[in-house]
Write a structure and sequence with these properties.
It contains two helices and eight strands, in the order H-E-E-E-H-E-E-E-E-E. By secondary structure, it is of the alpha+beta class. Strands 1, 2, 3, 6, 7 and 8 form a six-stranded mixed beta sheet that branches. The protein has a two-stranded antiparallel ribbon with strand order 4-5. It starts with a helix and ends in a 21-residue tail after the last strand.
Length: about 140
């Protein structure tokens, strides 16, 4: 599920920043700026009832701009991300991003967003097909 959310975040970013450099795996030295780096950090899963789970998925989206006017570029990108990631399409369902916040440190934007959802797992076992039950009624005296 996490990779499906990452793919949806990438699609949403590419809609508003066509041709952007986006990394979601280990970033090697020499990456091209401007670029986005997407990671899921600290996912949590809590069983609610039976096969139902509540998943809390916190994502970090880092934006590294070109060197000139780095802070103002980060602020502009942050404003666009607030709108672009409010709703994303994951497996044909809309998911809402919550707790969006950003921080610019040393000319790099770190944008944090939660995509929390309920997950239901279906049982892999086949249900019982037939049940036979015989009862007798005792005749009263």
């Amino acid at each position: 599920m996490i990779q499906a959310i990452v793919d949806s975040i990438i699609a949403a970013i590419l809609e508003v920043f066509p041709g952007a450099n986006i990394y979601d795996e280990k970033v090697k030295q020499g990456f091209k700026t401007p670029c986005f780096i997407i990671r899921c950090i600290n996912p949590l899963s809590e069983q609610v009832l039976g096969n139902r789970y509540y998943r809390q998925n916190l994502f970090s989206i880092q934006y590294s701009p070109d060197e000139k006017n780095a802070n103002s570029e980060c602020y502009r990108v942050q404003d666009v991300l607030f709108r672009a990631l409010e709703y994303i399409k994951v497996d044909d369902d809309l998911q809402r991003g919550t707790n969006m916040r950003g921080e610019v440190i040393d000319g790099v934007l770190t944008f944090l967003i939660n995509f929390n959802m309920f997950i239901y797992f279906k049982d892999e076992l086949d249900p019982m097909e037939n049940l036979e039950h015989k009862t007798n009624v005792k005749q009263g005296v």
